[in-house]
Design a protein that fits this description.
Oligomer: single chain
Number of domains: 1
Shape: elongated
Largest sheet: none
Helix content: over 70%
Radius of gyration: 17 Å
Structural class: mainly alpha
């Protein structure tokens, strides 16, 4: 069981890092929406390509707020919930297997 605990702990760590990075990319997308970045910039294209699928699905579910896009805030809250609930639960479960 020790190996399984290490595997689950490592998976929780990697998943936490991925969620952190995605949250920073969503924050960058929100900041970029306040300015007029060059749409041909490869960094801007990368950020849009990575965040748009999630934000688009969420925008479809949210009511129209008169041009205010709160989808990045909701994605950040979802990421924070996943980090608190799922990642911490995985870490506790992994430590109980040791």
């Amino acid at each position: 069981m020790y190996v399984v605990g290490n595997f689950i702990g490592a998976f929780a760590l990697i998943l936490g890092i991925i969620l952190d990075l995605y949250m920073y990319v969503v924050i960058a997308r929100a900041v970029l929406s306040w300015v007029s970045p060059d749409p041909n910039n490869p960094i801007v294209q990368f950020i849009n390509k990575i965040t748009e699928p999630v934000l688009y699905r969420l925008r479809k579910m949210l009511p129209d707020l008169g041009g205010i896009d709160i989808s990045p805030i909701i994605v950040i809250f979802i990421i924070m919930f996943l980090q608190s609930a799922v990642i911490n639960s995985l870490k506790i479960f992994a430590s109980s297997l040791h």
